[in-house]
Amino acid sequence: MKNFEHITLGQRVLFGSGKSAEHLSAEVSRVGASRTMVIASEFERSMAETATAGISPALWWDEVVMHVPVEVAERARAAAVEHDIDLLVCVGGGSTTGLAKAVALATGIPIVAVPTTYAGSEATNVWGMTEERTKTTGVDDKVLPVTVIYDAEFTRSLPVELSVSSGLNALAHCIDSLWAPKADPINQALALEGSRALAAGLAGVAADPNDIDAREETLHGAYLAAVAFASAGSGLHHKICHVLGGTFNLPHAQTHATVLPYVLAFNAPAVPDLAHRLAAALGRPAAGNQDAAQAAVEALNTLRRTLGAPSALIDYGFTADGIPEAVERVLRAVPASNPVTPTEENITGLLTAALHGVTPTAALAAPVEAR
Ligand code: NAD
């Protein structure tokens, strides 16, 4: 039986390699903006110059800091007001998009986003800011970019290692969407197609970083992942990574890439139909529901081996001493929708395996107590 409420966020998407300047100038005319503020870090400046070749920005802003400190957001907001800005154009990764969102949150100025990584922030209505080492996030439709301009040419410069961790971060958006609090048949369909596109695209990027078709496929998958995630919300995987990043200061994309197979191994036995569809999306169809969980886990393990993905939290500074506190924090945050009941014992088992990079198997987090 299907019984659900689904909200689709309204956003225009323009996709085309090498077309960012054409698409951006058409968008600026379409929204009738006359005073544009371009947000891009110093490193991202040359990509931003390419994208803005057809417009005349009123203001350039390059103070971009990871996790958007409130004082940085406040300076950018004040500059936008002082220069009478009527459109924000952000060209860069999730940190740059995040700064544009912070300005939009305070001012209501619309955003056109030109993403250059696979983070996916451009397709969500979620903002995040950091004050006194604490990151706060919230949801507000004002921060959802009115338009996203995807140009895979910009992702050519992403080194393979960053492509892999950023792409697996996007795959985590897909897989966690399968059991997140607002998971439904629509966002699950987007998540599964996103998984297929990311697996195929990333394998191509790892084989040849200049393969523009593979870059496009990965970017397309990253967008689907973000749309699914924005709709379904945060599940067990994101709650674990939030604790590891926020409390233990582990790096964002690498932590996601490392933890993902353990969360899949933990939950997959309790959702065999979804595991079956995920295994097929990742290129390893299971013989039947009985083998579906292990097939999905093995498909992800194979992909991660092909990509040379990060595999153990110990490599990023996490230690066994941190596990009890992490477990306590994760247990407080796990949504009730999680298909397996989390306990001190099974979350300790999950984190211990991820700490040491034990090969994930569908029996890893047993005993599995399905809800
Ligand atoms: P990032 O934006 O910090 O970029 C990482 C590095 O890559 C930076 O040094 C950047 O200059 C560089 N870079 C960007 N584009 C490049 C390119 N094409 N080639 C080479 N280098 C390039 O990192 P990120 O992973 O893109 O974003 C992570 C941030 O986004 C985190 O703060 C995360 O919380 C946030 N995020 C937010 C949402 C949301 O919905 N609000 C979703 C996903 C991520």
Describe the structure.
The protein has 371 residues and is of the alpha/beta class. The protein has two domains: 12-156, Rossmann fold (3-Layer(aba) Sandwich); 162-356, Dehydroquinate synthase-like - alpha domain (Dehydroquinate synthase-like, alpha domain, Up-down Bundle), CATH 1.20.1090.10. It is 51% helix and 10% strand. It contains 13 helices and eight strands. Strand 6 (126-131) and strand 7 (134-139) form a beta hairpin. The radius of gyration is 20 Å and the shape is globular. 53% of the residues are buried. Mean pLDDT is 94; it is low at 367-371. The chain binds nicotinamide-adenine-dinucleotide.
Low-confidence stretches: 367-371
**CATH level-4 homologous superfamily of the largest domain:** Dehydroquinate synthase-like - alpha domain
| Cofactors, ions, other ligands | nicotinamide-adenine-dinucleotide
- Gross morphology: globular
Taking the sheet with the most strands, its summary is:
6 strands, parallel
Beta-strand level of the residues, as a percent range?
A: 5-15%
CATH fold assignment of the largest domain: Dehydroquinate synthase-like, alpha domain
